[in-house]
Amino acid sequence: MAEYKSLRLEKNEGVVEVVLIGPGKGNAMGPDFWREMPEVFTKLDRDAEARAIIVRGEGDNFSYGLDLAAMMGDLGRHFGAGENLAAERTRLLDLVGDMQKAFDNVAACRKPVIAAISGWCIGGGLDLIAACDIRLCSADARFSLREVKVAIVADLGSLQRLPRIIGEGATRELAFTGKDIAASRALQIGLVSDVYETRDAVLEAARKLAREIAGNPPLVVQGIKRVMNYCADKSVADGLGYVAVWNSAFLQSADLVEAMTAFRERRAPQFKGE
Known about the structure:
By secondary structure, the protein is α/β, with parallel strands linked by helices. It contains 11 helices and 9 strands. The chain is globular, with a radius of gyration of 20 Å. A 6-stranded mixed sheet has the order 1-2-3-4-6-9, with helices on both faces. The chain has a 3-stranded mixed sheet with strand order 5-7-8. 50% of the residues lie in helices and 15% in strands. Helix 1 links the parallel strand 2 (15-20) and strand 3 (52-57). The longest helix is centred in the middle third of the chain and has 23 residues, at 86-108. The protein has 2 domains: 7-214, 2-enoyl-CoA Hydratase, Chain A, domain 1 (Alpha-Beta Complex); 218-265, no CATH class.
């Protein structure tokens, strides 16, 4: 597998772990991350061997978010220099758009993505887990939508994705205050599905869940994600029409035959994604 500076990929029997490794303190997200993350998830989306993905941080923390010190070279070119005219504003718009792809590609990836969170998950870290399908954390996890504290309107996905996960009120509370919340509060508002006692326990839970997903017919799992993504901002009628067309196109498969055969033979099915 390719070598990256900000990420490490570990693959085991259909489950790929994308590990945030910095190099900034607390797995902060610097220039390498914003360049590599979209590429990694574009490749994982097309990797037939990848059936489920886990995103986690190296060490004690998930991520401190944007590495401001490392990014000042890119961001600094757009502040306090020049005449602040349309061309400069357009370049900043392009930079933000490029950074947004890091998390857009996570959300759009056909494979289910599980976030295993320990320690701090701040700013860009929260943007990242909001783009994941399922979020689990350890009891020491702390979350903060911190951008307001540094005079920035969060622009990498939290304000758009979190309301669908935790509701408008909770999102506005986090965004307006920049406050820290503990794992217990994250569970209460639905940001995470479960809280585990230790970092090792949440990682094992994420791996168990990923293996369970990976054991199901992969094209059906991917179809479920695509249908649910489509239905997120559509009416029930639109969603029903979409899934009807989807199954009309993709229901017939070798995996469907295998499921029926295994049921008759009273054995575990072996799905191949065909």
